[in-house]
Structures are given as structure tokens and as C-alpha cells.
Amino acid sequence: LVLNTGLDSHTHDNRYYTEAEINSKINLLTCSGASVNVGYTTDGVTKSVANNTRTVMTTITIAKPGYYILTADTNFSKNGTGFRLGTFSSTADGTSNTGTGVNVPANSSNMTTIQNVYLLKTAAANSKIYFAVQQTSGGALNASTWIGVMPIRCT
User: Fold this and answer.
1) Which pTM does this prediction carry?
2) Count of beta carbons in the 10 Å neighbourhood of residue 23
3) Distance between CA atoms of 40 and 130, rounded to whole angstroms?
4) How far is Cα 42 from Cα 44, in angstroms, rounded to an integer?
5) How confident is the chain (155 residues) per 10-residue block, as mean pLDDT?
């Protein structure tokens, strides 16, 4: 048995991957180094939301292109009038719906909660996505939002 390893003259054929090639494929699948900057504290962000006005709660900057799942949970103060809306937006004023928006009637006995607003987004490097809310209670209401970002596959 003759075993030749580590020879300078060795080249591999296209049926096999080198360690560096495998590592690059793993990094691509796991989004290694995919930093995400989100404009909120770990405790969430609370803002006063004027009646019938889109209010951007937070800005998400995604550093690496790819596919991401974005989630948002928002609690509105107790008030039984009108509806509550949460949506991801491609514009800084929150008026352009990028993906699925959740529109629910107000809860008169407790705070109104919008849960799991999500969007599978293909993002260019350093793209910005905004999460906005709106309500029609007749006056201003406080809203608190928490955002989750999970990279699925970087490109």
C-alpha cells in the first residue's frame, strides 16, 4: 500500500471539496458573521402612537444579504376603540408595507397584543427595514415593541 499525502504536486478533481471550500459553504448556509443592528434595547421600545398615524417603532439594518425571518410583538395600552396594526416597511416613514401586516380589533378589557408579525426578506447588504404601528383609538396610545431577527441563509 502506497499512501501519498501532502505532496506539493497534488491537485484534487472536481468530485471532492477542499476543507476551505467546505468551510465557505458552511458559512454561507449558517450566515456566519451576519451582523444585524436593531434600533431598540433588549427590553423593547415604547412610544406614544398618535391616533391614525403610522409610527416607526424601530429600524433594522441587515449587514449581510440573505434570507431572514423577522418577528415583532407589540402591546398597545388598554383601549376598546378602533383597530391596531403592525407591519414591516421598506420606507423610513413606515407607510410602505413590505410584507404581512397584522390588523386586529382593539381589546376593551386588556391591552391589545399583536404577535408574530413576520416576513421572510431577501436583503441587500446594509439594507434597512422598518417596523411601524398604527391605531385608531381616538387619542394617543402607548405601544411597546420587541423585534426578533433570525438569519436563514446568507447569499
Assistant:
1) 0.73
2) 12
3) 12
4) 5
5) 47 64 59 52 77 91 80 91 91 80 87 76 79 94 88 75
The DSSP-derived string for 29-77 is HHTTT--EEESS-TT-EEEEE-TT--EEEEEEEE-S-EEEEEEEEEEEP
The set of residues, in sequence order, having a beta carbon less than 8 Å from that of 77 and lying 6+ positions away, is 111, 141, 142, 143
**C-alpha dist (Å) from residue 71 to 11, 97, 119, 148:** 47, 15, 7, 5
Grid cell, residue 54, equals 403610522
Q: Which residues contact 121 (CB under 8 A, 6 or more apart)?
A: 62, 67, 68, 70, 88, 98, 99, 129
76 phi and psi angles, rounded to 5 deg? -105, 145
Express the helix, strand and coil content of the chain in percent, nearest 5 each. 10, 50, 45
Total residue length of the chain: 155
